[in-house]
Amino acid sequence: MNILRKIYVVFAIIIFPATFSIGGVSSLFAQPKIPDNENGAIVLKDAFKILDNISREYEKDLKYMPYGGTLNWEDVSPEQKKKINDLIFNNPDFIKMFQLLEKASEMECVFTNTKSAPPEFLHIQSYLRTFVRMLCSKSKIEAENGNINASLKTSLTALKLGRCLSNEKSVISQMVRIATDMISMRHIEQIPDARNVDLAMYRSIIEYTEKERKENIISEVLIQEMIVFGMPELLKQFESVLCLNSEKKELTNKEREDLKNIFGTENIEDVKKIAREYWIDEISFYIKMMGEMILYSSKPYYEGKIRIEQLEKEIKQLPEKKASISRGLFPAYVRAYQQESNLDAVLGAAEIGLAIRVYRKMYEKYPENLTQLIPVVLPELPIDPFTGRQYIYRKNVDSIIVYSVGEDMKDDGGIEEKTLKPDIVWNEFLILNK
């Protein structure tokens, strides 16, 4: 179902309530039903138990992990590094956990439909962050041990693990997915290139990265947030006020005080009249706000930014009582869109950076420009989501950089620390041919 049709369904709910029901439309977005033996969430549940055991038994050692630890890996003593190395590659709990994570990363996951309910969902999100850091730690140590192919394979598992949240259609869940993808991609950049790398590993990561980059994660979840959660909640609140004191009981002093504070009057009929006017405005603007956010967040940032900024100004200019819910939700939705755009920029830069590694291995030289990657490595070049133009590519004496200009849409020369909204850079040292 395309985005415009989904938005139309929302209007149909309001305009033709006899034809559509909230429950019926919600079914359009229902999670798939997966048998337990095919559900990666069940596999992850077993991994949760192992992680709990690891966290208790090796609490003191976990602070030395390259990712998620409390110390910089460079500052960890050789003795402690050796111990972490032994835990990751020889400890039965760690080995089993990594096996389960690799298995789950290749499966579809539905958490809320499992027969044995996993921990509360916020805990699931926390577990997934920890798993990704654990996998990146393993990958880093594999790379340091010279096993680059194993390191790349482990990092791809970490990247795929974020998709375990793909059926959890809430903005919070997808922000966690974006965060785990960021961790994985930033780590992949740190894995050094090597002459003996299997090209198939690079191509697998490139293919997966392209797939992830082309998804409209936030736009899709906003549709569900609106239809399944937002509109039913607004209508429920509206109905509760219209049914206020339907039994004609005497109001308590506390109830009178609350009505006066919220509506400026304690008269029930006046309250209902105010509520009708308020909710018509509130629901109307909520539909407009969500419809535009859904539409524009499906577009690259350079196309959606101006209209979303205009919408933000409209919200600020409205009386607070006409858009209080939209005022509260809008900043979070905009930030989610920005974060997805940042991730898209990271993914695109990584896609090109890895393609350059493939090109170097094929031709024993680095490309002079990005168009040389087409079609021998990439079918097409990713476009910077912040400009709509090609990523910037520079080859220096001992390094190359590929970068997006980032949220501020200003070219800072590929310097990531220069501004609060810096360029988004893939940076690596050259392998010089002998």
From TrEMBL:
Lineage of source species: Bacteria, Bacteria division TA06
TM ranges: 7-29
Keywords annotated in UniProt: Membrane, Transmembrane, Transmembrane helix
Protein name listed in UniProt: Bacterial type II secretion system protein G
